[in-house]
Structure formats: structure tokens, C-alpha cells
Model the fold of this input.
Amino acid sequence: MEQTLTICNVATSAMVRECKLAYITRAGVEIGVASTKAFTTQLAGLFLLTLALAQSKGRLPEADEARLLKEMRHLPVALQSVLALEPQVISWAEDFARKENALFLGRGLHFPIALEGALKLKEVTYIHAEAYAAGELKHGPLALVTSEMPVVAVAPNDTLLEKLKSNLQEVRARGGVLYVLADGDTRIESAEGVHVIRMPEHYGALSPLLHVVPLQLLAYHTACARGTDVDKPRNLAKSVTVE
Done:
């Protein structure tokens, strides 16, 4: 029998009515069109759902489950540390406010986080922003890189770090200016044309939840600097009523 599940923040939404099962994230009322809390809450919800499915199939040892749940409970503290980086993000936003294009790069788990960063920037600032899997950089996007094209990179200390560093070197070699969200032990240093914000701690499988917040803040503060309406972006509506 077909099983359908919607993960949604609004219990009365059409998706909830259409699906057999509903997982309500309870992030609170979404005021702005470009909602950020709905995204981050869905990431947390999906992670818990994954743990539950793995446990039900006998694929999650008790010790691993306990460790991962402990990390989830620590998320509020970890996120507070990320929010403390806001002054550095505002400094980036002052640069971005003068630009009309931006590239975002991420690898593996963090490619969708780069996508979210680009989406939020284009939604609320009207800067043309695109995200790419960093491994695809040489297959076209590198041709766009100039000193006027800021490149944002999500750089956690994971198994793909060295490959990402190679991508960053390619950008610098072509005069691109880098803005890197780096875990503290990545050995990526600030230099001419390289702006680094150090994340407070490496967070493994939950790292995307921490890295996405500075990107959302970047969009917000860039929009403020450009004087655009953060809550009501032009041409967008909170609910889609036409196909």
C-alpha cells in the first residue's frame, strides 16, 4: 500500500490534507515569505526521522543513537555560538550589497546548504545568485569567476575538505574573491581575497544545520544594506495559488 508523508510547519496546509501521514515541525508562524526557520526546522525533523527509520530497521546501534540524540540536544547551544558570528556576517554583507552576482559552493551534505544560501540571497536582495556542487566548478561556472563575482564556500572539516580546498585555489587563481565558512580545524586562513568566518565547532552529520544559519543571515543583512523588503520580496507570495 502506498504510504505518503508530508513534513510541514502548517497543520492546515493542503499537503497535510493530501498525505496519509503528517509530521508537523512546529516552527511557529512564518511571517516572511523567504522563511528561514522552516528550512532549519525541517532539517532537524528529517534527521530525527532518519534516526527513527534506522532504529526501526535495526541499523542504528544504541550507542550511536544516544550519541546523535545528545548532539541534537546540544544544537541550541551550538546555534547560539553561530549567531555570535553575526558581526562578521554583517561585514560580508556590506561587500555583497554592492554586487549583482554571487556564486555559492558546497560538497556532499553541504551542497544543499549552498543552494539555500543562494536562494535566500536572490529572494530578498535581488542579487543574481547560483549554487553549484563544488566538484562541477571546472565544468562551466569557473568561466564566470572575476573579482566582481564573490564566491561563498561552505567548508566543513569532512572527507571532502581537500577536494574543496583545490576548488578554492582554482577560484583564487582566476582573481575570484572567496568568502569561506570554515570549521576551525580546516587550516583555511584569511588572506588577500580570502575572507574566512570560523565556525565554533565541527558538528559531523548535523553540520548543515549550523552552516546554513550564517548564509541566511548574509541574505538578511545584505537585503537590509540594499534597502529591500526582507519580509515581502517582490513578485513572491506566501501561498502559491496557481500552477
